[in-house]
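Page 47, continued from p. 46.
Same chain as before, 416 aa.
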Amino acid sequence: MRILWVKANKILPVHSGGDIRSFNLLRQLAAREQVTFLSYYDGTIDTEYEQALQKRLPGSVCVCTGKRQNSVLARGIDYLLRFQSDEPYSVSRFASDKVRQSLNECFERCNPDVVVCDFLDAAINFPERVPVPAVLFQHNVESEIWRRHAETCTSVGKKQIYQREFAKMLRYEREMVRKFDRVIAVSEHDRSLMSAWVDGSRIDAVPTGVDLAQFQANENSPPAGPLVMFVGAMDWEPNVDAVDYFCASVWPAITARVPQAQFRIVGRNPDRRVQNLASASVEVTGSVPSVIEHLKEAAVVVVPLRIGGGTRLKIYEAMAAGKAVVSTTVGAEGLEVHHGSDIWLADDAGSLADAVVSLLLNHDLRRSLERAAAAQARKFDWSAVAETFRQALYNAVRSGSGTKAPQLASAGYLGG
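Result:
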């Protein structure tokens, strides 16, 4: 099977949840199928990135759009210029004639059996008519993220922006889910949400995975100290909101009962709001060489997310490493986990604090949760997940005809 895979933004180094998922699936698929990866990114040409990508995924095609939107000011101006657009800004900002041309060239040169649009933001550059079955890979139900942003935001100005972007995203996402031949969701929960827009038989649910070669439990390790940890990209708003909420509403109740407890926030590019959380009992690491080494030191991993969608790879990674995880329902949404057995779920500040304190003080309870967590995570090695994904792509190829040209926009390019 010849697969053309299209993704916006650099995939290396592999940091974010979406990049981890995409890279591991690409790596597994490329071992058995003929994969062409089209990667496009803003800024100036990055030869180091392009060379590294060729080593990891030979035959990749890189396109540098030349756009410069790295500063807050540049992004703000760009947003105002696109304010009247019908497409959500998080999608329209990726529109590029260079990418559209390169994508059409890949269709002609590679003659793929199927094309994968990785994340909704790549859809903006797909042509009106695609000569092969087209699959939309939905890591999240994006409109759900914007809806939760609008619900939880306390700033009047930001709330209005979130509400506007939510309305745009809901309209656009619903249209794209209907127009692609097939959709791949990362959980049955997301599949259920999108089934309200399209026949659910056109949506395949492929679970998230974990690299069991990297994340392994060590049951002979000594008991960890009272270290509580959060792991995630700290420039992503749902993560920023999560640790801000945890420090303000949950952490004081924990330290009142376990005075020696420490909270460590591990993740790249910490937002200023995250940096300001640092204190005698709260550490903000920024980028680290190895998340695994930090996980080894943790007694409890917390995922106090109030905003988000898709699935949390970090939960499976922590579980595979044999760590007790306390999460909100939103944080563990879409994962095959079991409250009270291999994870602890809590949705208010008091319950979150109680769960963390219980696990810090009760060694036997924590050990029981750790063992069950590791056993559950072992079911989701990337090799098994990639096989499910491969079958989903075969479903798309089998259901499409050789001459089918699916309509992906009413005119021109998607959203263009």
